[in-house]
Design a protein that fits this description.
By secondary structure, the protein is an alpha/beta fold. About 35% of the residues lie in helices and about 20% in strands. The N and C termini lie far apart (about 50 Å).
Length: about 400
């Protein structure tokens, strides 16, 4: 399916990542956003509020993030593609409804423009410290998908991918920006609508009385219908059967939760999205994501000029984590270097995949600014044996 031309602002634009993300959402068919202002994400919905009257859709400013995260779910059942936008403190307030969206299989996108924390922290300065929260923040067992752009252009391109994945897997998808990507202004090329592939919602063809909201086929993803079209729809956060009715027993819990996990886990190879630069033949591999990947690339290039065989693995889809790829690389790589704007989160996933077959060097940063390239370069040199030994990080 091609994008609706009404939502595509074709051409070359010089805009920031927040505005580019908005344009990506519009191109993807998003026609409903509920949100609450919070730095540094507000520009996404400000632009949406300006653009949506000319396209046909709704932006509503709710009283808080809790209300926003449930309003989008109601709009999804009314047939809309939906999104909400926030930053760390607001994301924390949304956690219960994130679990509900996962459990009731609501295709939706949560944009998190990350800032320094915890608590209100650094409202106008960057961090990448929400990565584990989006994976594990709500209680219970569930799966999500999370993407991390490193430029305004990717903020546009990957937003379309985020919506497509939410429809394909009927799952909440997280768009993990950071303040730098959100506020940096760069060239963004928006193609014609006829060149943008959009995943259409998988509407059920069953007649009223035959449809069950949670009856899944071989891919474990149920079809959808709209409320008001004559179908019986029962939505609950309780463990439910295929009709959506509460089924409070261990057998129903096992059947439902295993399907929710397996619809992602059994297809995780389809969800591996990384950018590899010089990984083949490398002795050291830098693993990074988001704005940190751009800083890391400068260090990688300088290390190569010094004769180090170093590759760069940039995570575009962070969740599911590409553990199999990291494990395979660990059979022939001397060390992995992991810079991130937090005190050590995704490095734990690298360690889990490597299982001691190679060294793993963490380069934590509490946020507020980005790494100095020299800091990353020094760690690369040390890991390769061409510099001072890297100190061991504290065991947790």
């Amino acid at each position: 399916m091609k994008a609706d031309p009404k939502g595509v602002l074709t051409g070359i634009h010089f805009i920031d990542g927040d505005h580019a993300a908005c344009e990506g959402a519009l191109a993807a068919g998003c026609r409903f956003i509920a949100g609450y202002p919070i730095t540094p994400s507000t520009e996404v919905v400000e632009r949406f509020a300006q653009r949506i009257p000319h396209i046909g859709g709704i932006f509503i400013q709710m009283e808080d993030e809790i209300a926003s995260s449930i309003a989008i779910q109601g709009a999804m059942w009314a047939g809309k593609k939906v999104m909400t936008v926030t930053s760390g403190p607001g994301l924390s307030l949304m956690m219960e409804h994130i679990g509900l969206a996962a459990f009731t299989e609501v295709p939706c996108v949560f944009v998190d423009v990350q800032r320094g924390g915890p608590s209100t922290g650094l409202p106008t300065l960057p961090a990448q410290a929400d990565m584990m929260q989006v994976k594990w923040g709500s209680h219970g067992d569930y799966e999500i998908i999370a993407l991390s752009p490193n430029s305004p252009q990717e903020s546009f391109d990957l937003m379309i991918k985020a919506f497509n994945l939410s429809e394909t897997f009927r799952v909440p998808v997280f768009f993990m920006m950071d303040e730098v990507v959100g506020h940096m202004v760069e060239r963004v090329a928006i193609p014609e609508a006829s060149k943008i592939e959009i995943t259409e919602r998988r509407w059920s063809k069953k007649k009223p009385g035959e449809y069950k909201p949670y009856e899944a086929g071989p891919d474990m993803v149920p079809d959808l219908v709209k409320a008001g079209d004559g179908h019986r729809i029962h939505i609950t956060g309780l463990t439910h059967d295929e009709r959506g009715y509460p089924a409070l027993n261990a057998a129903a819990q096992k059947k439902l939760v295993e399907r929710l996990l397996n619809k992602i886990r059994l297809r995780k190879d389809e969800l591996v999205d990384v950018r590899q630069d010089g990984v083949e033949g490398a002795e050291v591999v830098v693993v990074s994501f988001g704005i940190t990947s751009r800083v890391a690339q400068a260090a990688v290039e300088e290390a190569r000029r010094k004769g180090v065989k170093v590759g760069h693995l940039r995570l575009v889809i962070c969740w599911p984590f590409p553990a199999a790829l990291i494990a395979e690389l660990s059979e022939r790589v001397k060390a992995f270097v992991v810079p991130e704007l937090n005190m050590g989160q995704m490095v734990l996933e690298v360690e889990r995949a490597v299982l001691g077959r190679a060294a793993v060097v963490s380069i934590p940063h509490p946020g507020g600014t980005v790494h100095e390239p020299q800091v990353i370069l020094d760690k690369i040199l040390a890991a390769s044996g061409k510099g001072a030994p890297a100190p061991q990080r504290a065991v947790r």
